[in-house]
Hints:
Elements: H1 7-22, H2 42-45, H3 51-58, E1 62-66, H4 70-83, E2 87-91, E3 102-104, H5 109-123
Parallel strand pairs: 1-2, 2-3
Amino acid sequence: MLWAWNEQAIRESKVIKALAEAVPAKLIPMADYRPQYPKIIAEKEINPNHPNLTIWKNKIDVCLFVGVHCHQSNIGLKIIRGGTDCFTIALCTFSGDDEAHITIRDLTADTIQRIADSVYRQKGTRPS
Length: 128
């Protein structure tokens, strides 16, 4: 999630935090590996991301991708599925990520809030 680049991202960020608190889940930011135009530093930007190292280091069983561009998430998800036994879920604003075990597409902040509310209902608790 790129946290505050527009109003929609700000709203989605707040409900992602609410979902993380509902589960509870640990939020681990991943670096933005997209090339920085117009000047590209090849040593920094050509090397692919390695989310599997984050999975191994933090002993993650379930990974939730949120707010990651489709091309980048599919690369990251493919690396995770190929190199770990982590279960992957992608929350996507567009058409979904075909490399995730589960993908929820056409996502909005309202939908994410409904998911968080459902988690609280299932657990029989209320948000603090």
